[in-house]
């Protein structure tokens, strides 16, 4: 009799849904729970995939350029999606057309002044490559500029000390702010008058100003040189035709940029002017000492004599200093960019980086000339706001807190003026010292009594927010920048964050927790994250805090995992890949992380080691291998180990628990098509099929190969190439359109910029195992491998050809560089005709092909997953909605074949129905390597192994994969995780041992132990752990509440129950597993960086710490009356973790590199 699913009638699910899926409950639940459109109240409004396909086709086609193209491609995309020919990535099926999501791109409007190395510049005029001032008080280059049209209110901000200059920005733009307790990046909409915003300044040590100026660089006339001076000689014809030569005054050619020059320049800015033939200074008669100083400075600097002109009968109280020199006049005019009128002149940009002593002298000359010096203040007024801002910039650099204040339109000049005011006593004293010529006097930011409007934190100035408001909504263009390394810039003197936040951008606590914040935002909107922790310093390195030594890179993995698990709940699909380089000193701890009693809860992350060719060769030759780490803070660290020590741990853990995975990183980099122009890959996405640059984003969709077979199961079965080629070409355009459709929907602006710059897409594949069966090919045969090689070679060329055609229509991806792109080993293997088209047309997409796990998508489509063989012909499913109880389910293709051939027993299937566990591992590796030759990204696939396979076999698989050109490999040994439903046969083997009666052992009179202090959300607890000769014996928990209170009773009860369990033979590790990560109302970070989530979690961590702390301590063995389950073979003990579905509580199947629930279709990779 044919095995089938019986589906009782139900009113909970629409009849149309049940009918569409033929009563297949797993597919129904997968569709309704994951992909069907819902309204804002959560009500399902799509009953079948027909409606979903129409929605997705319409939405993605909406980015086409005109209505005709939109109609055309909506129709073509509908054909592509129908009958599951093409299965877009889960977030595309779920997200397209969802009634939610606002952009998070953060920008400033045109006109916002950004401080560059050339001085302040409107943000819309800044170009890639220009250097801007950052929050680290230095200049760094702009890597990208962005603009967009919006129609929304802008946030308006005014800050004290900045002259009521209003800063306008989009609400999400972040500023470096201080709230009285800590410094952090705060969005504009969250800023209030209680915040203080960091003021940008240039560090005094950052200087690249010239030491001397060459006069010849500033004048256009031909110069003659004599005794280090220059002059001009002009011929003329005199009386009677006599020819003569008129020589100009000699001027020193090399002008020293020192304190003398700074003082002279300050006087000129305050009092100077220029004619065609002279430079002059206008001073009051009582400033004659200044006039004499100017004369002396002119002689020393330029070798010119100046004269003081003062007529006794002249009305008024003014005098002038004249320097009659055409060359000096040309030099001064050129120095100021040809503009020397009082309300227009500005300092050259390089002077803003001049040595501090030069700038102090300049400030002295300027304030002596135009300043107002009083007992308790010093101030300066100029009818030149741009110049005043430059002076303010210099004062900040020199450690002076000043304020700006606008003045109205001046009566005589009709120009608006501005004041610079210094009123704090310590800064007034510094200014007066400089005015008196003491230019060695140093000033630094320091808080002063009664100064409520600014704060100083770690030596940096923060000024108070004065006003916050909103503009009216109107259409406007806004702009943003991306800045290398520091990811910030200074806008209107306020420090703002740019659009990039690189994951773990630096080896610091700030970098680590910034990653957590940005990852959480990504998870909350359904995204996944990959990160590499190799940037973090190793365990035992020095740190600048109370810990003295770093806990190491691996110690933060629990924090990353917890961030993922916390946000990845309630339907939000968090996924995380953590990688580390094989030569990082913490690699041993990384490999063992999920075996550690305290940190076995790093369960919300996939982990992989980035393995190099150097390491693999060292293993092969049994040589030493150098672990190394270096950064500017701790210097260089190296440690030599035997390569096979690392190798054996990798193999042991893969045998025991399938983790960590292995990524052959040199192969990834060698084959990558994007190793240039900022697209260099640094890690992978959560399932490792897409190597990515910093903040690169996945744009995935999968061709269901099983839908493109004609005459299935017959001797004439063949590929439907006409429709497969059409689907491939449509899929390239579909995913390219997704990039534009999703441009303002990325969780992070950085992801938007990276995705549009490379236009990376991933045309993937699924249903491969089913396709082979329909064609009559057995997966593990030479015939199948030969066929697969030809299949994917043709697919590759079709996909790349379509990308060249799109480049003609829509343009190449912005980062495209033909010469650099053609260097890729993968590109070099393309057919000559395709390479010629790339040379002619370019490419629309930097990379195009991949093989994802396709977990839930394959469940929805009812086909085999990815390039995997059929996992199991049938398995047992527990129903929770359409029916109750358990029943046997056949793989859809098995059911289709049996119905078509009239078979009644699954044992009658032909040998082409081979399952994953029946295939020789090396044949699986060969198949993956064959396909990898034609995939520019990578492949997520799992080699499934029998329970009794040896670790040595796993080592052989790894070496075969490396030599064959795979970019990564994952193995899974059946039964290596207890409680996972893998196959029906495996399930029958599991038998529970009979339980024995447990008797607690008596407490001895004397015990020994330790007490741990742990901070929790309820307060500090003291956890005492005692042991006897057999191991840990009892646990006491004290410190919360007085005796007799409910809190004290609660903690005492926990301690008594733990003690009873320990004395009854329960292993401490089991107690750790039960109590660890139980969550309370608020997590608390300990001094060493460990996160404690509750009192029970604190107890678990204390027990784990105790177990690690004493060399003589051993884990308590189970009591003799309790049967001991047999250990693992080959000397290894597999981990015993029960993996349950977080969605429905069912058991998980490990397939194609991911855990998939056989009950509800949940996939950890979606």
Write a structural description.
The chain is α+β, with helices and mostly antiparallel strands and 1166 residues long. Among the domains are: 106-207 and 355-498, Hedgehog/Intein (Hint) domain (Endonuclease - Pi-scei, Chain A, domain 1, Beta Complex); 211-345, Endonuclease I-creI, CATH 3.10.28; 509-659, no CATH class; 1008-1109. Helices cover 31% and strands 23% of the residues. It has 32 helices and 54 strands. Strands 7, 8, 9, 10, 11, 27 and 28 form a seven-stranded antiparallel beta sheet that branches. Helix 12 (509-524) runs parallel beside helix 13 (557-567). The longest helix is centred in the C-terminal third of the chain and has 29 residues, at 782-810. It is globular, with a radius of gyration of 37 Å. The model is unreliable at 1-11, 100-105, 499-505, 569-573, 879-884, 978-982, 990-996 and 1110-1138 (pLDDT under 50).
List the topology elements:
Layout: H1 15-20, H2 25-35, H3 49-61, H4 67-81, E1 86-88, H5 90-95, E2 108-109, E3 113-116, E4 119-122, E5 131-133, E6 139-152, E7 155-159, E8 166-169, E9 174-178, E10 183-187, E11 196-198, E12 212-214, E13 224-226, E14 229-231, E15 233-237, E16 243-247, E17 251-252, E18 254-256, H6 259-271, E19 272-274, E20 278-284, H7 288-302, E21 307-309, E22 318-324, H8 326-335, H9 356-370, E23 371-373, E24 378-382, H10 385-397, E25 403-409, E26 416-422, H11 425-435, E27 454-457, E28 460-470, E29 474-483, E30 488-491, E31 494-497, H12 509-524, E32 529-532, H13 557-567, E33 576-581, H14 587-592, E34 606-611, H15 613-621, E35 624-631, E36 635-642, H16 643-657, E37 661-664, H17 665-671, E38 683-684, E39 691-692, E40 700-704, E41 709-710, E42 718-719, H18 721-741, H19 749-758, E43 762-766, H20 768-774, H21 782-810, H22 818-821, H23 825-828, H24 832-841, H25 855-861, E44 874-879, E45 885-890, H26 892-901, H27 921-932, E46 942-945, H28 951-964, E47 968-973, H29 984-989, E48 1008-1016, E49 1019-1028, E50 1031-1038, H30 1046-1063, ...
Parallel strand pairs: 32-33, 33-34, 34-37, 40-43, 46-47
Antiparallel strand pairs: 1-40, 2-29, 3-4, 5-6, 6-29, 7-8, 7-28, 9-10, 9-11, 11-28, 12-18, 13-14, 14-17, 15-16, 19-20, 20-22, 21-22, 23-24, 24-26, 25-26, 27-28, 30-31, 35-36, 37-47, 38-39, 41-42, 44-45, 48-49, 49-50, 51-52, 53-54
Helix pairs in contact: 2-25, 3-4, 6-7, 6-9, 9-11, 12-13, 16-28, 18-21, 21-24, 21-27, 27-28, 31-32
């Amino acid at each position: 009799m044919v095995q089938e699913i019986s589906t009782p009638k139900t009113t909970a699910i629409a009849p149309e849904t049940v009918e569409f899926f033929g009563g297949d409950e797993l597919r129904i639940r997968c569709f309704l729970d994951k992909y069907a459109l819902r309204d804002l109240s959560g009500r399902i409004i799509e009953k079948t995939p027909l409606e979903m396909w129409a929605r997705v086709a319409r939405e993605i086609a909406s980015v086409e350029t005109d209505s005709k193209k939109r109609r055309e491609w909506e129709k073509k995309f509908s054909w592509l999606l129908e009958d599951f020919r093409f299965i877009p990535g889960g977030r595309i099926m779920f997200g397209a057309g969802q009634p939610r999501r606002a952009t998070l791109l953060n920008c400033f409007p045109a006109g916002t002044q950004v401080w560059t190395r050339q001085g302040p510049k409107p943000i819309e005029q800044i170009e890639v490559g220009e250097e801007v001032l950052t929050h680290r008080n230095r200049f760094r280059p702009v890597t990208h500029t962005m603009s967009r049209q919006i129609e929304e209110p802008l946030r308006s901000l005014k800050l004290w000390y900045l002259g009521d200059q209003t800063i306008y920005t989009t609400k999400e733009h972040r500023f470096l702010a201080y709230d009285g307790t800590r410094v952090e990046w705060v969005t504009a909409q969250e800023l209030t008058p209680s915040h203080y915003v960091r003021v940008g300044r240039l560090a005094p040590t950052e200087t690249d100003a010239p030491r001397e100026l060459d006069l010849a660089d500033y004048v256009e006339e031909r110069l003659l040189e004599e005794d280090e001076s220059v002059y001009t000689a002009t011929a003329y014809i005199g009386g009677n035709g006599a020819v003569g030569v008129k020589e100009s005054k000699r001027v020193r050619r090399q002008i020293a940029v020192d304190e003398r020059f700074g003082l002279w320049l300050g006087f000129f800015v305050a009092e100077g002017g220029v004619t065609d033939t002279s430079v002059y200074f206008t001073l009051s008669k009582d400033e004659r000492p200044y006039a004499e100083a100017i004369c002396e400075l002119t002689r020393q600097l330029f070798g010119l004599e100046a004269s003081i002109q003062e007529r006794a009968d002249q009305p008024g109280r003014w005098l002038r200093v004249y320097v009659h020199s055409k060359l000096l006049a040309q030099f001064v005019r050129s120095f100021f960019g040809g503009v020397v009128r009082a309300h227009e002149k500005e300092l050259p940009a390089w002077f803003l980086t001049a040595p501090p002593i030069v700038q102090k002298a300049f400030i002295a000359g300027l304030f002596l000339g135009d300043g107002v010096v009083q007992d308790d203040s010093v101030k300066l007024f100029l009818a030149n706001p741009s110049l005043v801002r430059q002076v303010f910039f210099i004062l900040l650099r020199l450690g002076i807190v000043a304020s700006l204040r606008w003045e109205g339109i001046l009566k005589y000049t009709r120009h608006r003026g501005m004041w610079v005011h210094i009123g704090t006593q310590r800064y007034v004293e510094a200014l007066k010292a400089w005015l008196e010529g003491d230019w060695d006097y140093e000033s630094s930011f320091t808080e002063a009594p009664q100064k409520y409007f600014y704060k100083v934190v770690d030596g940096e100035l923060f000024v108070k927010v004065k006003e916050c408001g909103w503009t009216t909504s109107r259409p406007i263009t806004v702009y943003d920048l991306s800045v290398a390394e520091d990811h910030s810039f200074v806008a209107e003197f306020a420090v703002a964050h740019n659009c990039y936040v690189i994951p773990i951008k630096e080896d610091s606590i700030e970098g680590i927790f910034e990653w957590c914040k940005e990852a959480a935002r990504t998870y909350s909107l359904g995204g996944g994250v990959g990160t590499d922790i190799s940037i973090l310093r190793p365990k035992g390195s020095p740190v600048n805090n109370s810990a003295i030594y770093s806990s190491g890179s691996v110690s933060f993995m629990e924090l990353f995992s917890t961030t993922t698990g916390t946000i990845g709940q309630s339907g939000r699909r968090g996924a995380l890949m953590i990688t580390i380089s094989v030569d990082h000193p913490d690699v041993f701890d990384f490999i063992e992380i999920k075996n550690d009693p305290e940190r076995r809860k790093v369960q919300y992350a996939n982990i992989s080691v980035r393995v190099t060719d150097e390491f693999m060769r060292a293993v092969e030759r049994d040589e030493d291998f150098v672990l190394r780490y270096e950064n500017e803070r701790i210097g260089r660290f190296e440690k030599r180990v035997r390569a096979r020590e690392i190798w054996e741990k990798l193999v042991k853990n893969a045998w025991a628990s399938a983790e960590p995975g292995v990524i052959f990183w040199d192969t990834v980099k060698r084959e990558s098509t994007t190793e240039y122009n900022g697209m260099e890959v640094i890690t992978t996405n959560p399932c490792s099929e897409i190597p990515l640059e910093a903040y690169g984003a996945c744009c995935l969709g999968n061709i269901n190969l099983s839908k493109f077979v004609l005459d299935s199961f017959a001797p004439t079965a063949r590929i439907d190439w006409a429709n497969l080629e059409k689907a491939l070409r449509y899929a390239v355009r579909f995913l390219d359109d997704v990039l534009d459709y999703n441009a303002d929907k990325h969780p992070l602006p950085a992801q938007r910029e990276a995705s549009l710059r490379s236009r990376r897409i991933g045309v993937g594949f699924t249903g491969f195992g089913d396709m082979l069966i329909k064609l009559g090919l057995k997966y593990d045969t030479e015939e199948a491998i030969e066929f697969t090689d030809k299949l994917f070679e043709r697919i590759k060329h079709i996909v790349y050809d379509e990308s060249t055609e799109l480049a003609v229509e829509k343009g190449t991806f912005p980062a495209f560089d033909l010469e650099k792109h053609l260097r890729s080993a993968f590109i070099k293997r393309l057919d000559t005709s395709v390479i010629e088209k790339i040379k002619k047309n370019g490419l629309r997409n930097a990379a195009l092909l991949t093989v994802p796990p396709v977990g839930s998508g394959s469940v929805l489509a009812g086909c085999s997953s990815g390039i995997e063989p059929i996992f199991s012909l049938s398995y047992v499913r527990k129903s929770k909605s359409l029916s109750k109880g358990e029943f046997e389910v056949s793989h859809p293709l098995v059911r289709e074949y049996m119905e078509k051939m009239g078979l009644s027993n699954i044992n009658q299937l032909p040998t082409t129905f081979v399952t994953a566990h029946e295939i020789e591992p090396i044949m699986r590796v060969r198949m993956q390597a064959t396909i990898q030759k034609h995939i520019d990204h990578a492949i997520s696939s799992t080699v499934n192994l029998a329970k009794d396979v040896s670790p040595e076999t796993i080592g052989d698989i790894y070496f075969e994969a490396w030599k064959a050109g795979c970019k990564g490999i994952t193995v899974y040994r059946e039964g290596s995780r207890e409680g996972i439903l893998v196959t029906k046969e495996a399930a029958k083997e599991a038998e529970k041992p009979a339980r024995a009666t447990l008797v607690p052992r008596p407490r001895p009179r004397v015990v020994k132990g330790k007490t741990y202090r742990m901070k929790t959300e309820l307060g500090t607890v003291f956890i005492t752990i005692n042991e006897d000769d057999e191991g840990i014996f009892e646990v006491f928990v004290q410190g919360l509440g007085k005796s007799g209170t409910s809190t004290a009773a609660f903690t005492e009860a926990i301690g008594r129950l733990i003690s009873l369990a320990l004395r009854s033979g329960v292993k401490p590790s089991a107690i750790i597993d039960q109590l660890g990560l139980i969550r309370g109302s608020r997590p608390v970070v300990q001094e060493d960086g460990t996160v404690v989530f509750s009192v029970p979690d604190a107890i678990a961590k204390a027990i784990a710490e105790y177990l690690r702390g004493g060399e003589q301590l051993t884990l308590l063995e189970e009591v003799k009356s309790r049967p001991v389950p047999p250990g693992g073979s080959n000397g290894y003990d597999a981990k015993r973790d029960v993996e349950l579905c977080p969605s429905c509580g069912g058991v998980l199947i490990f397939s194609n590199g991911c855990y998939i629930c056989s009950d509800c279709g949940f996939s950890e990779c979606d």
